[in-house]
Every structure is written in C-alpha cells, then in structure tokens.
Amino acid sequence: MSMLKFLGKRLALSLFVLFGLSILIFTISRILPGDPVRMALGSRAPQWAVDNLREQMHLNDPLYAQYYYWLTGAVRGDLGQSLFTRRAVIEDVREFLPATMELALSAGVIMAVFGILLGAVSGRYSNTWIDNSVRIFSYIGIVTPSFVFAILFLLLFGYVLNVLPTMGRLSPWIARPPVITGMVSLDALLSGNFAAFGDAIRHLILPAVSLALGGMAQEARITRSTISDNLRKDYIASAKGFGVPERLVMFKYLLKPSLIPTVSILGLDFASLIGNAFLVELIFNWPGFSRYGIHAMLNKDLNAVSAVVMVLGVIFIIVNILVDLIVAWLDPRIRLGAERGK
Amino acid sequence: MNYSRNTLLKRRAEGFKKGWYKFSRNPVSVLGLFFVLTVSFLAIFAPYVSPYPTHASRFVNFAEAGQPPSLKHLFGTDVFGRDILSRVFFGFRYSLMMGVVVLSLVVIPGVVLGLVAGYYRGTWIDTVIMRTTDIFLAVPPLILALAICSVLTPSVFNAMMAVSLMWWPWYTRLVYGLSSSLRTEFFVQAAEVTGASRSHILFREILPNCVSSIFTKMSLDMGWVILIGSALSFVGLGAQPPIPDLGTMVADGAKYLPDQWWITIFPAFAIMITVLGFNLIGDGFRDLFALEEV
Amino acid sequence: MGETLLEIGNLHVEFKVYEGRLRVLNGVNLSVQVGERVGLVGEAGCGKTTTMKCVLKILTSPPGKITEGKILLHDKDVLTMGSQEMQRVRGHGISMIFQDPTAALNPVFTVGDQLMSVIKYGSKGSLSKKEIKKRAIGTLREVRLPDPERIFTNYPVQLSGGMRQRVCIAMALSTEPELLLADEPTTSLDVTIQDQVLRLLNELVERHGTSVIFITHSLGVVREMADRVYVMYAGNIIEGARKEELFANWLHPYTLGLMNALPKLTGGGIAEGIPGRIPEYLDPPSGCRFHPRCPRAMQQCSQSIPPVVHAADDHDVACFLYRGETDE
User: Fold this and answer.
1) For position C268, which CATH number holds?
2) Which 1-60 residues of chain C touch chain A by CB within 8 A?
3) Which domain holds residue C186?
4) N or C: which end of chain C has fewer CB within 10 A?
5) Where residue A342 falls among pLDDT bands split at 50, 70, 90?
6) Looking at the domain that runs over B39-44+74-293, which CATH code has it been given?
C-alpha cells in the first residue's frame, strides 16, 4: 500500500468520523432541558426578545432542520452565534484557540522529549537506581490528576518560592507583541522582542509542565519497557557481535524500533493532554480555548459547546494522522502493509 | 475430550490458586491490593470509622473553621469547620461508586459489541459497530463527558451517565482486536465445524480467552474513571456541594491556597492513593497474564 | 594437528533471575583448530548458544554473567580484552549466524543499511562508501540471492525466511572472519530449504577456508558439516572426538541416546528418544548433571563431577564408566 493511498483512506475515515461527531454533539447539545435563550438573556428579558432570538437561531424548527442549518453553516466556517459573548463563535475560536495551541504544543513537546529520554535511560540501565527513580516518577505522574499538579506547582513555585508567574500569558507591564500566529511566545520571537519572549516562556512553564507530566510518565513507561525488551533482541546482539560500535547500536539500531510503540500512543496522550487543558487553563487563568469551552459549558452556550468539541475533534484527528504517518515512516512493516508481528 | 463438571471446577480452582500465588509474590501488586482494600474498607464503614460522621454533609461550625492538622482533626478542618479526614473517608465512597457504577454499566455492552464486531469482521456489522466507536473515540473522553454533563443538571448521577456513555468504546476496541484474531484459531474453527451455535462460540470459546485482558483493563480503568470523575467535580460539573466528593473538595480548597493548604492537599492525596492502588493491581495482572497491550 | 584458533577453558556462566542464580554453563571446555569445522551438539537449552555469545562477549548482561573461565583466541583471552580490542575481534575475527534470521535482522532498517554497517565496522581496514556498497551487493550475490540490487533496498519483512537466513550468512561472511559461529542456522527454516542453506554454507566456508563452530541438535547434520564433534549436556561438554571416531565408538550414555534418536536408514521403527528432559538450572542435579536420566547411573555419579578422560586418541569423555589417562 502506497503512502498516498494510506493517507487518502485515513482522510476519508476522518471526514466520516467528523460527520458522526457533529451528529453526536448536535444531539447532545439539543436534548437539554430548559430554554438556553431564556438562560442567556436572563429572567427579566421580555418574552418578545426571547422569541426573536429563538427564531433567529432556528430553535423553533424541527431537530433535523436545525442540524441542516448548523451543518451548512459549519461547512462555510460559520459556527453560529455565541449566546453569551453575542459574537460569531468562529471569532471566539480565532481569538482563543492560539493560546491553547501554544500551551498544548509546548506541553506536547515537553511530554514527548522528556518522556522518551527518561524512558530510554531507564530502559538502558534497567534495575539500577536511575531506573527505579524513573519508575517511581512514572507512577506518580500517572496517578496524579493534572489539576493537582497545577495546584501544587501554583503553591510551590508561585507562592512559596515565588520564582515563576502563575497567571495569564504575559506580565501586565509588557506590551503584547503584534499578532502573527496568535501564540505570544512565537510572535515575540518573530518580532524580535526578546524581553516579551522570555516573559511569555516564563508564563508558559508551569501550565505546560503540569499538563505534560501525566503523558510524560506514560511515554517514559512504555519507552522503558520496549527499550529493555529490545535490548535482549538478537538483532542488537548481532549488530554488536559484528563490531558495530556501541553508540551506533544504541542510537540507531535500538532507538528506532523502540520508538514505534511510544509514538503510537502519543496521539492518545495528546488527547488526554487537551482534555486536561480544560482544568489547567482554569487554574492558571490562561485565556485559552479550553477555558472558553468550560465557560460555555457552565453557561449552556450550545453553539459554543458544539464548536469547541468539533474544533478539538479536528485537532485530535490531525494529530492522529500525523502520528500514523510518523509510525508508518518508522515502521516499514506498516508502510508495506504487512501484518505486524508481535 | 470429556471433562466432568467437577474436574473443570477443580482445574479452575487450581488455576486461581496458582495465579494468586504468583500475584502475591509480586510486592508491588500486593501494595496495590493493600491500598484498594484499605480505601474500600474506609469507604464502606465511613459512618463508623470517621471521627465526625456528621461533617460529611451540611454542617457548620465556624468556631473551628480553618484549623490546621492537629490531634483533634488529623487533616485539619475546612472553612465551615468540617473535619477533612471524615470528609475524605466519605469522599472515597463517591470515588469508588463512580468507578464501580461506570464500569458495571460499560463493560458488558462494550465487550459484547466488540465480540460481535470481531467475529463478523469484514461484514457490515463490523463496519457499523467499529465506525461508531471511532466517532466516540474521536474526542478526548474528558471533553465529551464535560459536554454531556454541561447540558444536564450537574450531579453525581449525571456524571456517571456521561462518563459511561464515553467509556464503552474502549472495551469494544480492546475485545474487537482480541476476538478478530481469535476467530481464526483452531479451537474456534473446530467448534464451528462441529456445529456449535454462534452464542456458544462467542461466549464459551472466544470470551474466556479475552477475560484476562478485560480484567486487567478494568482494574486500570477504575483508576482512570476515578480521575475523570474527580476532574468533572473539580470544574463543578459533577458532584455538587455539600457532597464530600474528593474532586469538589480539591476545587473548593484551592480558593484558600496557600494559607490553608490542608483543605486541598489531603483530598488530592486521597485521589492519588486510590488511583495508585488500582494501577498497581492492574500492572500486577498485566505481568501475571503476560499481556502486552491493554 | 594444526594451530589452535580458539580455546574455551572451564567456562562458567550464571544468570541472575528473580528466583535465584541459574548456573547455565558449568565448566565448558572446547577447542577449534585453524581451518577446522567443529560441530556442537546437544538438546535445546543445554547452553550452546550461551557459549557462543560468550565468545563474542554479547551475552545480555544483566542477567547473564561469566563467573569463571577463559576464552583464548590465538592465545589471547577475549574476556580480558578492552572494548577497542574487542571491536577488532568482532566481525573479521569472529562472526556469528543466529538461529532465527527474523530476530537477527533489525525490522526497521533495510538489508543494505544493516549489511553496510557490518562491512564498515566489521572488516579490516577502512573502505569508501562506494566500495562498501559494492562489497555488500557482491556478498548478496555470493549467497545466491536473486536480484541482489533489489534485495539491498528491501526490508527484512519483504523477504522469505530462507532469503533472510541467506542475508544473515552474507553478513557473517562479508567481514571475512577467521571463525564463524553458526548457531542452528537452519532450524527455523522449512525442511526443503534447510538442505540448500546447509550446502551453501558448507561451500562458502570451504571456499574461504573459514573455521566454523556449527551448533545443532541433530547428529545427522553434524555428520555432514563437521570434522570434530562436541556433545554438550546441561552446561557441560561431555564428549568430544573426531567425527569418524565418534560415530564409530561413542562412549557417553547421553551420546548413545542421541545416536538412537537418529532416524535409521535401514530397518523400520521410529527413532527412540531419551526419556526425561534437561534439568532445571536453578537447582541442578549434583555430580554429573545427566545422572537422573542416565540408564547406567552409579552411586558415584550423583556425588562428584566426572573428570574428563582421554578414552582414545583424540577422544575425550566425561563419564565415570571410563578410565583412561586423566586430564589433570
């Protein structure tokens, strides 16, 4: 199976999944008891205003018609109007998504790099004190909810040590660099504003690390077990036996096959990272998409809730396709469409 | 082969004994079992073992509000003067209940769908079931659970329903993988050739070979579900005050950081210990059954 | 007798596991002359592969550990060599063919990539990239793989089992080693291909004048492949002799059992096996490790380890049934 065909099949499936997801989330968001419009406008709003808004949002039409309006809008990039901010939801997405992407991408990089590093060291020196410490760390990372990490870091670095900022994306006395990508640290770097860059990075550290730790522990754990399994494989003994230098064996012939399971679960770990961003953004007052999503959920802002779920669904699907591509690149057995042996 | 029912039972008992022996030789899984048993004991007998059972619900005593840990209140008291230790014991109840209810709702439909889809691999039945699971797995489970909870009235019951609705596809996917490969094994084909009924093949031939994986996943999932449950109550979409849910307690206490750290820290540790216990047991199972991926 | 190439003396290896220490090799003695083809025979799990891995110092450690003994290559002890010196021994000094070619080839690199690494680091002198590639394709051709240029770019998963083992043979011979360790190179192959691969190996070894240790569990294969035969049981060499001598007058009761297990060309009947199985290494039998299965066991056998005796010219055996000149 060629790479292109693989990709095409994957994209077709993704489109189908997105379509299904849209039905799912639409159904969920319209089965709620109570009148969201009444809730948004408040109990003192006159009845005609409520009726007008209901009419405007097609809430009086049958469900399938509502779905049709919503879907045709969504395809054109119109995700409806937020009942709360009274703006087009797509505007809100544009405003809040980059902050979350900045946070999630940094956390994702920290998670992958350190997870693999720790796991590799631990697997290479298995059953030593290094290995044991990494394993204990992994357990702590796995069982601790990210919001607990966030709170602990807030307490420790923000209050007790007072070395890192705990709120928002930039210190108030620093001017926001011009918006290029919407990610403050990247924008600062691109516009050459290193003071702002440093400040943005300092703001990023705590939320990104609290988000990354759980996944990092998972990655470390799975890397450890594959590395220590693969170390016993004949192909490692064989390469060594032919006089291939130890370093080359470790960094080339051991690392590449061992990364396959690690990369395969990166997608899942990134998903739970995005989920946890909902809590972590709340704690660090990070003005991102997830915090917007939580407010939308707490306020029963239907269009916003559907938009949040759909946008995150799209992101998640893109991440998974990327992960699949990397795995296929790493593993010729998948690329060549062969059965993957255990 | 013609085993009498008795020999079969005896064999099963022997296998169980042997498994228990191996499991008990692993200090890590025994530690996990110890945590889980302790937490369960405290949860079940919370009204008897907690020092101030009345503090579990609406109770106010401002005279003793915000006390740091002391002999009288080992974990201190919260802003209403309620004993945190007692509330943590009752909190275990909600965490365990979350895990038990969700898993008991989820495992059976998830497993049956996976078995059927795997057995009919390549047919329209497979397509319908597995594409549906794909849709449910397309978004991080926490986010969909949050979305569902948000449209319902926040409560413990609704949180359980929301998480359950999100969780079955994981079992379907796990069992699908197993059963679609078991389907071609000789013992299944032998049963087919002898004319065994479909339900016999699915539940008597294929299912028993999936049980160890399902068990291991359940044990690990108890931990995950408890984590998700606590996350839901943390943002206020799960259990509502004055219910002593551990996630809610962490969220409430967070407002009083860093001065009254004990209000937050002890419930947080309680969550971690519970999840750790189930994780360690799950890992013990994984080693015991020599499973690669669950 | 010619010059001694390899001499293993009193080699002890232990594996540390959760339950305790497994004493897997219990004083192995073995020697190979220059240009000699040696067969090492024994049941699965008797320590043949472990011995070979010790020679190349590629025993996975932990859990494996060499506790005692020496391995002399041209009178230099491999075990005391530094990593630099060892690097020179591996490849063009000694190379190895593994039992399972699927496990011995890295699944995520092309055949060419792996073969070129072996040639680059395993051969004498430094070669340019072009020369390496030329030599790689040349060796693939030498093991009679069809279309070597294509196979060079293939991944192991694209090849059949027999082709994979040919690639492994190509790798092992590409460095022009003095000594080739062939660890049951045909066991994992289809019966029809086994013979082809054996013949190819024999031919190549003869052409290059390579010394070989050929590991197998079948005396039948040894008869075709070896000049000298060692029989191994549970971590000990229990009998060693020239091939013709061994097949004419085997001495050890275990060797007798192996001989009986050979399918007979004349006369019907199913080959007999040896009752019982290889003992547990955690708590091996005292004295001669074969005594619980030995039809001729005596009281002495469970008390002390039988010394190696010269039973005949160039024929050693470790069994109390025989008294010749003792080795010590």
Assistant:
1) 3.40.50.300
2) 53, 56, 58, 60
3) 4-326
4) C
5) very low
6) 1.10.3720.10
Contact partners, residue B152, CB within 8 Å, separation at least 6 = A32, A33, B158, B161, B162
Of B142, B247, B271, the CB nearest to A275: B142
A242 vs C149: CA distance, rounded Å: 22
C112 touches chain A (CB under 8 A): no
Using an 8 Å CB-CB cutoff, list chain B residues near A314: none
User: Which of B148, B235, B272 is nearest residue A294 as measured by Cβ atoms?
Assistant: B235
Q: Give the chain A residue whose CA is nearest to the CA of C155.
A: A332
Contact of A331 with A260, CB cutoff 8 Å: yes
- pTM attached to this predicted model: 0.82
Closest CA to B243 of B42, B66, B98: B98
C-alpha distances (whole Å) from B87 to each of B241, B257, B284 are: 12, 19, 30
| Residues of chain B scoring pLDDT < 50 | 1-3
Query: Across the strands, what pairs with C95?
Result: C180
**Highest-confidence range of A176-180, A334-338, B171-175, C207-211, by mean pLDDT?**
B171-175
Q: In the structure encoding, which two tokens stand for residue C284, read together?
A: 């091996």
What span, in angstroms and rounded, lies between the C-alpha atoms of B175 and A219? 24
My answer on whether omega of the bond before C62 falls inside 30° of 0, hence cis, is: yes
Total domains in the fold of chain C: 1
In the beta sheet, which residues pair with residue C213?
Answer: C38, C181
Q: Quick one: average pLDDT of A160-170?
A: 81
Contacts of B151 in chain A (CB under 8 A): 28-29, 31-32, 300, 302, 305
> Mean pLDDT, to the nearest integer, of A154-161?
83
What is the CATH code for A89-341? 1.10.3720.10
Cβ(C210)–Cβ(C177) below 8 Å: yes
For residue A2, what pLDDT band results from cuts at 50, 70 and 90? low
Flag whether pLDDT at A262 surpasses 80.
Answer: yes
Decide: B170 and B221 in contact? Cβ < 8 Å.
yes
Give the tens place of pLDDT for each residue, A276-324: 898 899 888 888 888 888 888 888 788 888 888 888 888 888 888 888 8
Chain B environment of A25 (Cβ under 8 Å)? 144, 147
CA C26/CA C10 separation, integer angstroms: 8
Select from C76, C52, C168 the least CA-distant residue to C115.
C168
d(CA A118, CA A124) in angstroms, rounded, equals 10
3-state secondary structure (DSSP) of residue C69 = strand
Contact of A257 with A321, CB cutoff 8 Å: no
Share of chain A above pLDDT 90, in %: 15
| Sheet order of strands, C325-326 included | C94-97, C179-183, C211-216, C37-41, C228-233, C236-242, C315-318, C308-312, C325-326
Q: Quick one: pLDDT at residue A240?
A: 86
User: What residues of chain B lie within 8 A of the CB of A21, using their CB?
Assistant: 135, 138-139
Give 3-state DSSP helix, strand, coil % of chain B, rounded to 5: 75, 0, 25
Which residues of chain C, if any, have pLDDT below 70? 1-2, 18, 62, 263-274, 276-278, 324-328
Cβ-based contacts of B251 with chain A (< 8 Å): 147
Radius of gyration of chain C (CA): 20
Cis, bond preceding A177 (omega within 30 deg of 0): no
Query: A145 and B231: CB-CB below 8 Å?
Result: yes
Q: How far is CA A171 from CA A106, A168, A199, A200, A239, in A?
A: 19, 8, 7, 8, 54
**Could you give the residue ranges of the DSSP H alpha helices within chain C?**
48-55, 83-89, 101-104, 111-122, 129-142, 148-153, 161-174, 191-208, 219-225, 243-248, 253-261
C127 near C135, Cβ under 8 Å? yes
